[in-house]
Design goal:
It is a single chain. The chain is of the alpha+beta class. The protein has two domains: 16-125, 3-Layer(aba) Sandwich (Trna Endonuclease, Chain: A, domain 1), CATH 3.40.1350.10; 130-203, no CATH class. It contains eight helices and ten strands. A hairpin with a 2-residue loop joins strand 4 and strand 5 (65-69). The protein is elongated.
Length: 205
């Protein structure tokens, strides 16, 4: 899968430009919703997935006329399963013209081997506090996995789960920087339900 030249497409919409080491790609996100979709994929896709935003054009026929489409996300899993993702606000996605376009794209992509076209709206992407928590945790991925500090934090702990408040108290007692907790969560050494408010989190490991 090749990529088209990345460029800002709208002069008025918010634009987010970034680079993520996990996918080794520079990305241009043209809305806050695309940014939240990207963060969702960043934290949920397997590390060996190939994830591209704004990939090459897909040519097809719509209403009897040749045209092209650029997806918001293109994912290839290790199994070679391919997902072509469109990110759209729900109100826009149910407009008849847009819904028809999506139905045609669904049919056309189904003709390709192991390929599925998907539409994600804010109802899928912004579940509870998940999008805000992903946005908060994303900068922590720039830090290496805190394996030794994480092991030191939990050594001697017999409980199978601890609240964020309890982890903070434990870190303070052991003179370990509290940031280790957030970095460990970003690298999924600590697991919690990220749809809930961060300060209400209860972690397992």
């Amino acid at each position: 899968m090749t990529r088209r030249l990345l460029a800002k497409q709208s002069g008025v919409r918010s634009t987010f430009i970034g680079y993520t080491k996990q996918f080794d790609k520079v990305t241009v996100k043209e809305s806050c919703l695309e940014r939240d979709y990207y963060n969702w994929m960043l934290f949920t896709l397997p590390p060996d997935a190939v994830f591209i935003m704004q990939p090459e054009k897909f040519y097809y026929v719509l209403n009897g006329k040749p045209t092209w489409y650029t997806s918001d996300g293109h994912i290839t899993l290790p199994s070679k399963k391919v997902y072509v993702d469109e990110v759209k606000y729900h109100a826009k996605s149910i407009e008849p013209e847009v819904a028809h376009k999506h139905s045609v794209l669904t049919k056309e992509h189904s003709k390709l081997k192991k390929t599925k076209f998907r539409v994600f709206t804010e109802r899928d992407i912004r579940v509870g506090e998940r999008a805000e928590n992903f946005k908060m945790l994303k900068p922590c991925l720039h830090h290496p996995v805190p394996t030794l500090a994480f092991e030191a934090l939990l050594v001697g702990i017999k409980q199978l789960q601890l609240s964020l408040h309890e982890l903070h108290a434990l870190a303070d007692k052991k003179r370990i920087d509290r940031s280790v907790i957030k970095i460990a969560a970003a690298h999924q050494l600590l697991k919690t339900d990220l749809t809930k408010p961060w300060f209400d989190s209860v972690f397992t490991w």
